[in-house]
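To the wet lab folks,

You asked to see what we're planning to order before we commit. Fair enough. Below is the target structure as tokens, and below that is the sequence we designed to fit it. If anything looks off to you, flag it before the synthesis order goes out.
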């Protein structure tokens, strides 16, 4: 199994010959090393419906006949855009891909999508994703503020690898993300959602210095988690 980071909030998990993409914002993402024209995906998981997380979902799903798991309203919208295998999931809901299982958990954030005509579509409640694969628990927090029930998430499902936003402005910043680590208690944490746009410029090494409760791995786009 390989778990890798690809700029902004893009995470890839490769297992048993299958590829899972989380929040595949590729086109327009100056930090990613992936291309929507060449990337493969068997499953696409979305934490919420903002454009910088939905990204290339429709094109990737069409090209790869991928299963897309998304919050209920986001899945409904994507179905109307031509995604044939859209699975709607609510907070607390679980889904079995066959080679991995996942659960949606709470996040504190908004969720909407602006189409090419400038129309804003409501995309449901934002969430985080717990991914259970090969005996490991991977947590992608999506976009979120700091909140107390992160402790419950970590206690309910002990986390091996956590991907946490640190960019501030739209999500928690490095200081709050470091406190989130103390609540979640993952073995490994990877900072995400920073430096893509000027408002979310952040120093991941500062975040690493603040974390006392886990091993921090600062990854360049294309870098893999060392477990």
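Sequence we intend to order:
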């Amino acid at each position: 199994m390989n778990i890798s980071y690809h700029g902004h909030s893009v995470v890839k998990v490769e297992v048993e010959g299958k590829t899972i993409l989380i929040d595949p914002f590729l086109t327009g993402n100056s930090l990613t090393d992936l291309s929507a024209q060449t990337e493969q995906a068997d499953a696409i998981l979305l934490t919420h419906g903002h454009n910088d997380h939905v990204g290339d979902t429709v094109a990737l799903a069409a090209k790869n006949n991928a299963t897309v798991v998304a919050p209920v309203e986001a899945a409904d919208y994507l179905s109307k855009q031509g995604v044939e295998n859209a699975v709607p999931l609510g907070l607390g809901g679980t889904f079995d891909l066959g080679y991995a299982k996942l659960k949606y958990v709470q996040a504190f954030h908004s969720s909407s999508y602006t189409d090419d005509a400038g129309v804003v579509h409501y995309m449901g409640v934002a969430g985080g994703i717990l991914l259970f694969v090969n005996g490991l628990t991977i947590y992608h927090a999506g976009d979120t503020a700091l909140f107390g029930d992160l402790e419950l998430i970590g206690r309910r499902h002990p986390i091996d690898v956590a991907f946490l936003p640190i960019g501030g402005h739209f999500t928690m910043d490095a200081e709050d993300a470091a406190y989130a680590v103390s609540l979640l208690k993952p073995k490994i944490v990877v900072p995400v959602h920073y430096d893509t746009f000027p408002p979310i410029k952040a120093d991941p090494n500062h975040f690493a210095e603040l974390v006392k409760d886990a091993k921090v791995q600062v990854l360049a786009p294309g870098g893999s988690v060392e477990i």
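Structural context that might help your review: The chain has a mean pLDDT of 98. Residues 42 and 66 are 5 Å apart (CA to CA).

Thanks,
Computational group
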